[in-house]
Design a protein that fits this description.
about 50% helix; homodimer; mainly alpha; about 110 residues; Arc Repressor Mutant, subunit A; elongated
Chain lengths: ~110, ~110
DNA sequence: TCTTTATATAGCAATATTGCAATATTAAAA
DNA sequence: TTTTAATATTGCAATATTGCTATATAAAGA
């Protein structure tokens, strides 16, 4: 298959999984961290930060954009990418809600 | 390719991505939520909770176990699964560290 | 012992992901 | 206008993921 079933889950579960999945690649983690750290918008300075080719970086950026984590604006012939602050807080809420739960007493 | 490059990233980035990736499926989110909520160890009660066949559930459980999120002990002819509390806190730290970062002023 | 229950594994088919080279595309620069 | 720089897209090959059915396996029960 390769196809993930979606019926039988809540919308929240699907949303959570979708975001987690996008964060589930070291290149995308590295991009997000970089954008959070340098606190500035970048074009493909990422070429110097990631061990990947330009087309591959472009695709990772597109995936991050698809779930709203980053946004990009055109600046002449280059792109300015940065974290979407609002969406970032939303994601913090979502994932934080899950992570914040306490496992209770171990029973195995 | 289909194969994720690992050179050129920090160990922390790879670890983060690995955990996020495992959480990147609604079935695995549902399993984790369920285990956190009922605060009890279960066998395949999950059959009643997920829209998946027993073998498929078993595989999702195996993936969660591989990264240490859950652990299982044999109980007669069935398995007791539960969240690994220690690992859970570790993951909260890791992911929380990323999520906690503030995007700073929007510039695009 | 035979059967049932609970689980895991193997094997398969379909789709998804990842990465690169090659090629568009678009704007700035010469 | 030609060239350069910065990106995105296409096309491809290799591997990964997902889900199922069928089949082990192992303990409990009859």
């Amino acid at each position: 298959m390769g196809l993930t079933k979606t019926e039988g889950y809540t919308q929240a579960q699907i949303e959570l999984a979708t975001v987690a999945k996008v964060l589930g690649h070291p290149a995308r983690i590295a991009i997000v961290q970089h954008l959070l750290e340098i606190n500035a918008c970048i074009g493909n300075d990422l070429m110097d930060v990631l061990p990947l080719s330009q087309p591959t970086i472009s695709r990772h950026l597109a995936e991050l954009k698809k779930v709203g984590i980053i946004q990009g604006t055109i600046e002449g012939s280059s792109m300015n990418y940065c974290i979407n602050a609002h969406r970032w807080r939303e994601i913090r809420q979502m994932l934080g809600g899950l992570l914040g739960m306490e496992p209770g007493a171990q029973c195995c």
